Amino acid sequence: MKDIAIVSFAQSDCVRNAGAKNEVELIMPVIKSALGAAGLSTAQDVDFTCSGSCDYQQGAAFAFVLGVDALGAVPPIKESHVEMDAAWALYEAILKIRMGHADSALVYGFGKSSPGELPTVLSQQLDPYYLAPLWVDTVSLAAMQARMMLDQGVMEEADMAAVVARSRRNALANNPHAQLKGEVAVEQLLAEETWVSPLRKHDCCPVSDGASAMVLCTVEKAREWGKPYAVISGIDHRIETHNLGARDLTRSVSTEQAAAVAGVSDGAIEVAEIYAPYSHQEIILTRALGLGSETVVNPSGGVLAGNLMMASGLSRIGEVAQRIINGDIKRGLAHATSGPCLQHNLVTVLEAA
Amino acid sequence: MSQPELLSQDFELGFTYTRSTGPVVGRFLTDLRDRIIVGIKGSDGKVYVPPMEYDPVTAEELSEFVEVGQSGEVVSWCWVKEPRDSHPSAVPFAWALIKLDGADVPMVHVLRASAESEVSTGMRVTARWAEETRGFITDIDGFVAAGDES
Amino acid sequence: MSEEREMITGIEVPIYLKYHFTAGEATARFLSQVRQGKLVGQRCPSCNNVYLPPRGSCAACGVATTEEVEVADKCTVESFTIVYIPIPGNPIQPPYVIANLIPDGANISFIHLLSECDNDTVHRGQRVQAVWKPQEEWDYAMDNIRYFKPLDEPDVPSESIGKVPVTGWEV
Ligand SMILES: [Zn+2]
């Protein structure tokens, strides 16, 4: 099996409202930047292109097709799309390369969630007979998950606030693209009133607009290009039942399974970028991934600092890859999630060459 | 080029779908219309309410329906201070995971209460039916504290 | 439970989602100028193709388009279809003609209506011109043009459609 390298990554700022920017205008700068860092200029220069997005976010049918206008797809390119976070577009690209159908790929994700009411839009991804007609939103489902953890003594509210405080602090120190950042004390956070109790507004990721992009290829190709790279040493994703009542919401079995297959515990993890849209979910995930105090969790601030729905999973992988490419770390992991209450999880282990 | 004008406008996107229910969901909704709640037995004998078509662990096709109680226990909940336009309540309410008597798996539904302080994990609740039932999940108007259903 | 009760076999689940849509920069520029009765496309800096309406990029080259180019409201029919079935919500009564039109000064088509024409003789290469609404009704919308109607001009040869500027329009 061919080893796969990430050679470049680019992400836009996370902004609450990108206003007068259409799909193409959001995507094009990050695609140009990722391709440029790999020494390439258009999608013609890679063998495969795959994107992740969800048209319901902006309410524009087939918006992902319009996004192709940013690529330079004449003559026609090999292109695909997932109606998921672009971390899964990366997974498709990896399969394509491993099957020998491509040596290089461009992967990008974008989300313009500002036109709609995201938690309500996401209620319609649920069971169409029993849940979607109730319009139960994703914040409420996460709040019930947090309540279970509090009731069972798995964590306390101060633990949740500590996650938020660290996210804001890390975003301030390390992430110029973050939407929410700053120094804020745990006591200050706990003094705020609840929003969807037991969650406070700060326990929930913000709604953001933006995009991110990545170039990957075989290790041989990366050497040919003469670019520094990070190697994907393991990747796996698992999904749990859609029936929320049938899951143990206080842990993430699918993350545990994916982490085992991806080889998380085969070596020390210096940095972990985790896609936890709610503070309590970071606590579930660090446990499921078996991370200890030797690992720096979410140095970027994670998605509590800015959540590009459909691109943030790819950005987690990019954040870790970039640190390896820069020579800052040797080994790290990235996690991406999809669905309510961490239903579906993808774990990637990245290493220096 | 000068900066463009900012052009924006409200719009509503409508998907007017009908869905086939199949024998399992259809049976559950038919019973709701008759003010009865049924679950289904999973491969290991666990009772799922609402009924699932396939066992989430074994993928076995399920068919053994079981009538369950209309009261049960709150397994978890959250309090919605500011209901959204789409929510099934204009005033503050709770979403809850409710394990009905005779069921093993809790279901998500509305829990109506006048204040957050009246809701707690483990509390007993009872289904309150809509005035008219039609074979839809909202035939259960919501759950209320046991004793408050009338 | 009675055996003969009518089973539920399907449910109506209408979904309505509210959005506040903001046009992209290229679209906003285009619509602002349509409101002034002008058709303004954008030219690709790489291949010179002129897009109308513009989307801010050249789909072929994958580069941003910024240079604005005003084009004529005279067009050449590149392709067309005659619609005989009523479309729910569409006030236009069939049969009517929808055409891909290439405006003079551009070489990528857009879609609009043809009218005041003989449906049976509409053809590729036919020359047409916009029929605008009265100026006081102009808005940020392409239906400022009610439809296009045939011009008494020679056809553009098939192989030249979309390839050359025509009728005195200088690129
Ligand atoms: Zn071009």
Automatic annotation (TrEMBL), chain A:
Superkingdom assignment: Bacteria
SUPFAM superfamilies: Thiolase-like
InterPro entries: Thiolase, Thiolase-like
PANTHER family membership: ACETYL-COA C-ACETYLTRANSFERASE, NON-SPECIFIC LIPID-TRANSFER PROTEIN-LIKE 2
Name the record gives this protein: Lipid-transfer protein
